[in-house]
Design goal:
The chain is of the alpha/beta class. It contains 9 helices and 8 strands. The protein folds into 2 domains: 5-98, Rossmann fold; 100-206, Rossmann fold. Strands 2-1-3-4 form a 4-stranded parallel sheet, with helices on both faces. It has a 4-stranded parallel sheet with strand order 6-5-7-8, sandwiched between helices.
Length: 227
């Protein structure tokens, strides 16, 4: 029996390899398909906010993936939380925001959270989502943020080593915290370059998202078999 079909929806091509690699490593039985819509990020940067038209585009993308037979949808673009929530409300299959699982782990790690990002427009949405999750759990957290757009520029220029080095340097600058979040899927490769600090967990979206999806769909299959 083949594994579940997971639709991966991307706003930038540099997010594709990290999540596909994470599936290959952590859940090779899953069948992944990728859908790239790379006008989303520049449109958000130009508009400065998530517009109703952008929300409709996300809903349309999710519906398309479902129509193609997806058992679940994972968006890899971290700047569009409210638009993904709209897609969650209308689809009958699991639709995951990119950072839900990672934020779960961060909140479990402690109250001092560092957030690194390479795409500046994603930071407000990331902070808002994390703070909302903390409020729902009645947790008080302190978030330190640092944005390094030069790392993303290096990645787009085909310089992954430079990208990873810039992020590792930023991790040193942000200092001690209980959890260090790498806010973009495309940042996952830099985790290995970040120096260990006692008591600090370095978290990446791809690893956390794959493990959560695996749990969700495995439980769904078990419930169906039991019913």
């Amino acid at each position: 029996m083949s594994g579940p079909r997971i639709a991966l929806i991307h706003a930038t091509p540099v997010a594709i390899e990290p999540i596909v690699s994470a599936f290959r490593r952590l859940w090779p039985e899953a069948r992944t398909t990728s859908l790239l819509e790379d006008s989303l990020a520049p449109d958000l940067a130009e508009a400065g906010r998530i517009t109703p038209a952008m929300v409709e585009r996300f809903v349309a993308l999710a519906r398309y993936a479902h129509g193609c037979g997806a058992d679940a949808v994972l968006f890899t673009c971290s700047a569009f939380g409210p638009a993904i929530e709209a897609a969650q409300r209308v689809l009958p299959i699991p639709v995951l925001k990119p950072n839900e699982a990672m934020f779960d782990e961060a909140l479990a790690a402690g109250d001092r959270i560092g957030l690194l990002a390479t795409f500046a427009p994603s930071v407000p949405a990331l902070k808002t989502e994390l703070e909302q999750m903390a409020r729902e759990r009645r947790l008080k957290i302190r978030i330190s943020t640092l944005t390094v757009p030069s790392a993303l520029k290096a990645l787009h220029a085909g310089q992954p080593e430079v990208h990873d080095r810039i992020i590792a340097e930023a991790a040193e600058e942000i200092g001690d915290c209980d959890a260090l979040i790498l806010g973009q899927f495309s940042m996952a490769s830099a985790a290995a370059a970040i120096a260990d600090r006692p008591g600090r967990r370095v978290l990446t979206s791809p690893t956390s998202a794959v493990m959560q999806l695996r749990r969700v769909l495995t439980e769904k299959v078990a419930e169906h078999a039991a019913g």
